Amino acid sequence: AEDQNLTVTPNPLEVHADTVAFEMSANLPVKMLKKGKVYSINSFYKYGDNEIALEPVQFKAEDYPNANEQQPKQTKEYAFAYAPAMKTGVLQVQGVASDPKNGKTKETERMDVAPGVITTSKLVEPVYFAAYADHGYNNQEELIPTRVNFYFDQGSPVLKYSERRSDRGDLLSAYIAEKNATRTVTITGTHSPEGAERINSRLAKQRAEAIQEFYKREMRKYDYKGLADSIKFITKDVVEDWSVFKDSLATYEGISSEEKSAYLDIVNGPGTYESQEDALHKLPTYNKVFKELYPKLRVAKTEILTVKEKKTDAEISVLAKQIVDGSASADTLSEEELMYAATLTPSLQEKEAIFKAATKKSDSWNAHNNLAAVYIAMGMEGDQDKYADMAMTQLEIAANKKEAAEVHANMATVEMMKGNPYKAYSHLQQANSMSPGNDLSQGINGVKGSAEIMMAKYNDAVSSTSNSEDNATNLFNKGLAQLLNKDYQNALNSFKEATEKDSDMAIAFYGAAIASAHLGNENDVYSNLEKAVAANPELKGKALEDLEFATYVTNEQFRNILK
């Protein structure tokens, strides 16, 4: 039995995705297996007072007719569910020779073939992410355009009385009278294509300047004083340019599409502006176009950009608190303003109250989602089970209203809090299929990377953590995935990056010690372990039992570090 050449791979055993899987190969000595006999290798994993009996490897003499000249060989794959108590244990085998005819057996004593279970995969740091949906409120300055056109007589830059007193003139006067907060006034003067307009090269500019002067007169009339200095006037002129003509022609209904094409063939064709305009004269519809369309080209187009009136952040915060305590109507703020108010406070309790008010006001998917995100954030601070259940209640309401990436991302975190990485992974896949934005995508990938390590998808975990938020936890998980993928040097680099982000991250120093052990860097094993136990003394006992450091256990320096 001592010569049966048993090989266990890996040795020590390892846990991956809650399963301890290994392969055992046995080569029996030549002439050991006698005719008519059966040799069985019974396997047991013993831990504490418990043991798991595994399926035996059987060598039947009739299956190996050449056993007297060749070694009988057999390889078998095993797997059993891991429990934390199994960390310290031993894989044992016992050989049993039997004669099926007379039922007689002989047994060897049990032999230890593999010590315990390496639990490095269990170092994974669960990642949780509270995904808030966009509140939809723009707290930046917004400019609202107001557009007014004034028309001129052929060849004239004079703004006529009839234009000033037109509905358009009255509109502009009324606007100016209100003293709206105005950023810019852009006035673009144009001319029609015919010679009387074209030969005066300053005509378009003079028309723009005429409107500017009218605007400024009105400001003086309404006593703008210092307000006038904050308004920027921009005057432009469009000279010998067919673009305005073509835009007007496109909406002109006085001629057919075929007739319009004749005009476009000329203005888009070769020749100077003057020669093209002369060619238009020869078209049968020219007089009609000249009479009906050309006057609309003798224009000064005015665009005024006004600052949209908004409440200040302080006003929004105060009103939100009043809505929450019932002293103000929910209609005091729009849904977007109310949702935005929650971003203005660091207090999770205040955020919860505001989002609760938002769910009552609008019952929208994003209000319910964001209330769930607050519960997730509360769960990250403690009492995960309680807040995970509260979050899931809100998320189920949100999901019924809209299948959104944020909702599935939050559902994934809730499942992670409940210890269900496979369910979390399913939600993360759905969230990723919905084209999330960059910040959300990074959050999703952090959670996904930790779930993938728990599922033993180490290649995928390296990819996910590489595309996650650049923080210590994600960098540690990246290093762990690389370590479990046997990419020891890159794992060491990632652990180092994690400790640079967080110099007190004991588990990252611990991971670096494991990677250094695999690389054979003894001094680095000691230096990293020293930093790990300095940051978290509880790691001393773990390191002494950890089979990753089995070759160092008897070393005096190693034991001194862990005293």
TrEMBL record:
Gene3D superfamilies: OmpA-like domain, Tetratricopeptide repeat domain. InterPro entries: OmpA-like_sf, TPR-like_helical_dom_sf, TPR_rpt. SMART domains: TPR. NCBIfam families: TPR_END_plus. This is Tetratricopeptide repeat protein. It comes from Fulvivirga kasyanovii.
